[in-house]
Amino acid sequence: MTPRHQPISLATKELLYRLLLEKISLAGIVRASGVSERWLQYYVNKKLGSVKRELEVKLKKKGKLTIQCDEREHLSYAISRNTQRESMRE
Question: pLDDT tens across 5-15, in order?
Fold first, then answer.
């Protein structure tokens, strides 16, 4: 297969951007989209360079904490491990 220069359409670039937001691996994106690894790495580096490096933190009013069901087990495990550690220290 010989390399050939083909411009990447705007629709393809938008799709690639959405795939990157979904945290799909670069290798997977290359396989699924047909763009070259080199071009995709260039695109990612260019996007990363345009991202603002400073965070804007806004304070929110303290209120009720809502935990999703899939997080509840992890949270109770983390709390129980932390409680065990504290009791071992005493």
Answer: 788 899 999 99
Q: How far is CA 26 from the centre of its chain?
A: 12
Q: How far is CA 85 from CA 15, 78, 81, 82, in A?
A: 47, 11, 6, 5
- Both tokens of 76, joined, read 């109770």
Return all residues near 19 (Cβ < 8 A) that are at least 6 apart: 29, 32, 33
Residue 30 neighbours by CB under 8 Å, 6+ apart: 36, 37, 40
Q: pTM of the entire structure? A: 0.53
Tell the residue number behind the tokens 């396989």, with chain if given: 31
For residue 10, give both structure tokens: 């705007």
